[in-house]
Design goal:
By secondary structure, the protein is of the alpha+beta class. It has 2 domains: 1-42; 49-329, Immunoglobulin-like (Sandwich). 17% of the residues lie in helices and 36% in strands. The protein has helices at 2-42, 78-81, 197-202, 315-319; strands at residues 49-62, 82-91, 117-120, 124-131, 143-144, 173-179, 186-191, 206-212, 221-230, 233-236, 247-251, 255-262, 268-272, 277-278, 284-285, 287-290, 295-301, 306-312, 323-329. A 5-stranded mixed β-sheet has the order 11-19-18-13-16. Strands 2-1-4-6 form a 4-stranded mixed β-sheet. Strands 3-8-7-5 form a 4-stranded mixed β-sheet.
Length: 331
């Protein structure tokens, strides 16, 4: 009996060591599995690479296509309202065919502003840009607010510092690589920031990024409103006065999102008649001030059918054309 007991005792340490080794291996495997799960969780399921092909193209732009201020009855000649300019335009892959800048249902306008670039937090945006400014043959670029990028995708011209991203010559191309971080949710401007920046922005060479948060639902309607002076007029998306400015439409029950920004050197106050929205502090409001290159968004669930005005509440701006209509249909 003593001999048998002695044999069991001698095998016990080896068994214990085997059990400890197995337990350590299981713990390591579990830790690896947890780390992998956390890494996967850090990447949202909807994260994607979103490619766009955009070009700088010359156009003959009419700020007041119908030639009149419908409210005051003033008429304007095309010599006062038409001018040559360069705009951002959306294209199919490889710049083979032009596409509308605005998604279907967002606006009855095109070309100004530039393409609405949509993404979600976690996405990477690859923007292929080509300078097709055959009219002026000026350099152009794209500079983006609100997203992450390396200096080679900044697009802002500084002599002796910036690279070809900020000075894309006629006929040349550049690819901007951006990332929508957790701090990128919202709406943001982009614009020409090349040596031609001043005249480009004055002529309408700007657009907006619209970035959803993780898990945030896309609205049923999304409206882009850019307040900017043009010549002697104050414009919304490059147009002046009711009947020329964008007519936005929705239906009762739909969720609508307004993306508002200002370009140029002036401040504006956005206002929609008959509606209110919640400010970030939770308070209701129906006006909000926006300065140069500032932007904001808000939403509501539509419940008020009818035709409503939206405009800048700086009175001189409204009288110079910064006013439009919003039409809500019953279901």
């Amino acid at each position: 009996m003593l001999g048998t007991d002695s044999g069991h005792t001698s095998r016990a340490p080896a068994l214990a060591r085997s059990l400890r080794a197995a337990a350590a291996a299981l713990a390591a495997t579990a830790a690896l599995a947890l780390a992998l799960a956390l890494a996967l969780a850090a990447q949202p399921a909807s994260a994607a690479v979103r490619e766009s092909w955009i070009a700088a193209v010359p156009v003959s732009w009419n700020m007041i296509p119908n030639g009149r201020d419908a409210i005051m009855g003033t008429r304007y000649d095309t010599s006062q309202t038409v001018f040559p300019t360069v705009v951002f335009r959306r294209y199919t892959k490889g710049w083979k065919r032009p596409l509308p800048n605005m998604p279907r249902g967002s606006s009855n306008q095109n070309l100004i502003p530039g393409p609405l670039l949509r993404a979600r937090v976690g996405d990477r945006l690859v923007i292929h840009f080509k300078n097709l400014d055959r009219l002026f043959k000026h350099p152009h670029s794209m500079h983006f607010h609100g997203v992450h990028y390396k200096p080679s995708s900044d697009g802002a011209y500084v002599p002796g510092v910036s690279g070809r991203d900020a000075d894309v010559r006629y006929g040349r191309t550049w690819t901007y690589r951006l990332r929508a971080g957790s701090d990128s949710a919202g709406v943001w401007p982009y614009h020409d920031h090349s040596p031609s920046m001043d005249e480009s922005i004055a002529g309408g060479m700007y657009g907006m990024l619209s970035i959803l948060g993780r898990g945030e639902r896309r609205p049923d309607r999304e409206f882009v409103v850019v307040f900017a002076p043009m010549g002697q007029f104050q414009t919304i998306d490059g147009r002046a006065f009711v009947g020329n400015t964008p007519v936005f439409t929705s239906k009762v029950g739909q969720t609508v999102q307004w993306d508002v920004m200002a370009m140029g050197s002036e401040h504006h106050t956005f206002h929609v008649h008959g509606h209110r929205w919640r400010a970030p502090d939770g308070e209701p409001r129906d006006t909000q001030t926006v300065g140069p290159a500032e932007s904001f968004r808000f939403r509501w669930r539509e419940q008020d059918p009818g035709t409503w005005l939206y405009h800048c509440h700086v009175e001189s701006h409204m009288m110079a054309g910064m006013i439009g209509t919003y039409r809500v249909k019953r279901r």
